[in-house]
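Lab notebook: predicted structure, single chain.

Context: the supervisor wants predicted structures on file for every construct in the current expression panel, including those that have not yet been purified. This is the next one on the list. No modifications to the sequence; it matches the entry in the shared construct table.
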Amino acid sequence: MRRAMGVGLALLLAACSGVPPWRPVTDWVQVWRLVDRADTLARDGDHPGARALYEQVIQEYPTSPWAPQALYRLARLEVTPASPVRNYPQAYTHFDRLVKDYPDSAYAAEARAWRETVGQLLAREQEAARIRQDMERLKRVEIRLEQEALRVREDMERLKKLEVDQEREAARARGDLERLERRVP
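Prediction complete. Output recorded below exactly as produced.
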């Protein structure tokens, strides 16, 4: 009974949607069934299977009344943290497409909010990646500076030893000079 009502609703929506009826009614029923099956797969945790069906609807039936729903649900799958098909850039693209291609759909307002949220997330991820790169660069600079500081310390130790050696030599030379001065009448 539920399916029959769903098919009836699908036919009614297809007839009232204002979408050019370039496909027979049986195709609209097929589209509705694909979306319904994708929804079931998504609920059951088969996100890759659901994604494939939503993508099929979007690609093969872009003017159907269910294309916005399929696009929205596909994007939602791609923002689900535990989903194996999680892909924030792709979700942003899908939300953006939904807003642009289906601005009057029931999903457009939510898609705008999701697009904004995902866009902010992507911007934060880019900023975090830039900060990580800067940190790596600074670590390399720190290592070079530590190596240079070690070389400078080693040079200072060598110079101190040289200074001590030269002071000994100077002291010996003064001693030799004093002895020579005493010998000379």
